[in-house]
Design goal:
alpha/beta, 32% strand, Pilus assembly protein PilM, PilM, 16 strands, FtsA/MreB, ATPase_NBD
């Protein structure tokens, strides 16, 4: 099964396999850009353009797998923890969940795709269980399923992008479990248009938020400064083929803005929760590898910071180029988390 991440900027594919009993191997990964406007705010605006990009990335990767795990943007999914009596049968549980769901979902139940997962005994009430409820508009789920089908693939898992990212992060932090035990860890995924912030304590999300800030702002600055079309500006930004004054006049102010956004987000976390510290900060997303960004954020926040590679500790298939992967990896956090569902 492949992990397929459909974002504003492109489609990313990851295929993992088991190497031995427990080790994972990255078999292949690939990306294909999307035309502007094909995906807006997590909504599929042009199914044909997105399915064409998915078909191209599938061919480019060289995989034969046709089953895929897809992700929904967090803003498109309502999640809620509910308490139900323990000892219910599967059918009784389903009826109870639907009954509870109708209180939290502002749509008719026949318009939503609904799922739930039993988390375990309720904390202060041993005779009850805690259940996680997730619901999304059915049409949004069907759009993604249709994209897979149009590309000749079959969607078998629909996850939430932020949960997939967390699964990938959990795997990396589990490699050194003692170092993160009891620590407050903040993950900043800086995408094309939005930065998604997750704060976790011992693997449990204690805070989530999105901020309208991303790499497209830097691309727009390049467009204005050098008079380039947007797509060319984006390509040159990635390839590092810009005039000599780019670093000082365009990149440096963007890095300042990014560091300010991260600092503000952390302050907002402190003022809106009982927590007063962040012990470790991870950067992911397409912007994470911008030269100077990590150092600027670490300097401003005074927090230990690192760029997150979701493939850390994995074996690499013969076709994966390690040097290229180091640069690409942070953008594949969600796709890697989705690919991990193969082993769930």
């Amino acid at each position: 099964m492949l992990g397929i991440d459909i974002s504003t900027s492109g489609v990313r594919l990851v295929e993992l396999s088991l190497a031995g009993k427990q080790d994972l191997r990255l078999e292949r990964y690939a990306a294909e850009p999307l035309p502007r406007g094909a995906v807006v705010d997590g909504n599929i605006e042009n199914i044909e353009q997105v399915s064409d990009a998915l078909r191209r990335v599938w061919k480019k990767s060289g995989t034969r797998a046709r089953l895929v795990a897809l992700g929904m943007p967090p803003a498109s999914v309502i999640t809620k923890k509910i308490i139900l009596p323990a000892g219910l049968s599967e059918d009784q549980l389903e009826v109870q969940v639907e009954s509870e769901a109708s209180q939290y979902i502002p749509f008719a139940l026949d318009e939503v795709s609904l799922d739930f997962d039993v988390l375990g005994p309720a904390q202060n009430s041993p005779e009850d269980i805690e259940v996680m409820l997730a619901a999304s508009r059915r049409e949004k789920v069907e759009d993604r399923v249709a994209i897979a089908e149009a590309a000749g693939l079959k969607a078998v898992v629909m996850d939430i992008e932020s949960y997939a990212a967390r699964a990938a992060l959990d795997r990396v932090t589990a490699l050194t479990p003692k170092s993160t035990l009891g620590q407050v860890v903040a993950l900043f995924q800086i995408g094309a248009q939005v930065t998604h912030i997750s704060v976790l304590l011992d693997g449990v999300t204690i805070y989530e938020r999105e901020q309208p800030f991303g790499g497209n702002q830097l691309t727009q600055d390049i467009v204005r400064a050098f008079g380039l079309p947007f797509d060319e500006a984006e390509a040159r930004k990635k390839a590092g083929e810009l005039p000599d004054n780019y670093a000082a006049e365009i990149l440096a102010p963007f890095l300042e803005s990014a560091a300010l956004e991260v600092t503000r987000a952390i302050q907002f976390f402190f003022t809106s929760t009982p927590y007063t510290r962040v012990d470790q900060l991870f950067l992911a997303g397409g912007c994470a590898q911008l030269p100077g960004l990590l150092e600027m954020i670490a300097g401003r926040t005074k927090i230990a910071a690192a760029v997150l590679s979701p493939f850390q500790g994995m074996q690499l298939a013969a076709g994966v180029r390690e040097a290229q992967l180091r640069n690409d990896a942070p953008a594949y956090l969600v796709a890697c988390g989705l690919a991990l569902r193969r082993f769930g």
